[in-house]
Specification:
Mean pLDDT: 91
Distance between the termini: 21 Å
Order of helices and strands: HEHHHHHEEEHHEEHH
Radius of gyration: 20 Å
Strand content: 15-25%
Helix content: 40-55%
């Protein structure tokens, strides 16, 4: 039985004005998932210990970033350096995010994370001598002419010719059509940012999913450049974001798949 708990009332830590100064793919995606989740994370500024799965994903992402930077700088891959980077990033992120491990879980997760990286390097379509166009670049786009906030973001990797790559970790093998749909807001944001930065359209988009199976594997989903229809949808999502903040519409969106893993489940149960 769940015990009754009195509602927790907190003073917002982030003003509506600040949240309208700029928008990002993560903010937009959170609003789309659940407005109350957005309220807890961005308005109240609540923080929670990172889950083991998120810790694995963060470390893997950092090592792949370092791998891309090495290729960009030298065209070489120093595996000993990557192992040291993996170990130090694992420890630093763990201390900062205060991950809670079950008995024996940390070591098995650490081994699984490195196995994912080995799977990526053995299966990646990216040649070692392929020099990236950009790696982890911070970009922004002024959308005030559209009546929208400034869009900001960090693009994981841009391959030669303007092919945008985003790295993901997943517990299940993704379906190509669904992967494109579920990540459309994020990818459309990257397209807008890339176009604003270089003055031309991207040549395509790629999702690189590292799947955490007993035998890890890489699934690459190649997508066409963002279409005008997709850009229209993105701008409507941004308009909805602005409207949500003005109206302070924090109504939750219960979902059997997302609620069970939401870090704000207990706070949601005590809402309003």
């Amino acid at each position: 039985m769940i015990a009754a708990v009195a509602p927790v009332i907190r003073k917002p830590s982030t003003s509506k004005v600040n949240l309208l100064e700029y928008v990002s793919a993560s903010r937009l995606s959170t609003v789309q998932q659940c407005k109350l989740k957005f309220y807890f994370r961005y308005v109240l500024g609540l923080s929670k210990p990172r889950t083991p799965a998120l810790h694995v994903g963060s470390t893997v992402h950092s090592v792949l970033q370092e791998w891309s930077l090495m290729r960009w700088r030298t065209g070489k891959c120093d595996m000993d350096h990557l192992k040291r980077h993996f170990a130090s990033r694992w420890e630093e992120d763990e201390k900062e995010s205060k991950v809670k491990w079950d008995d024996g879980e940390e070591e098995s997760s650490k081994q699984a994370a490195w196995a994912l990286l080995e799977a990526y390097w053995s299966q990646t379509p990216i040649a070692l001598n392929e020099k990236p166009e950009a790696v982890e670049v911070s970009v922004d786009a002024d959308l005030t002419s559209h009546g929208l906030p400034r869009l900001v973001g960090i693009i994981d990797l841009v391959r030669p010719g303007g092919r945008i790559v985003d790295f993901k970790t997943s517990a299940q093998t993704p379906n190509a059509e669904r992967a494109g749909h579920l990540n459309e807001t994020q990818l459309s944001c990257y397209s807008v940012l890339y176009r604003a930065a270089v003055g031309k359209n991207e040549s395509g988009l790629e999702l690189h999913h590292l799947v955490k199976l007993k035998t890890p594997k890489l699934v690459v989903t190649a997508l066409a450049p963002t279409s005008e229809q997709q850009l229209t949808r993105l701008f409507r999502v941004m308009e909805s974001y602005v409207s949500t903040l003005h109206r302070q519409d924090w109504i939750p969106s219960p979902n059997p798949m997302s609620c069970v893993t939401c870090e704000f489940f207990n706070e949601c149960r005590r809402w309003p």
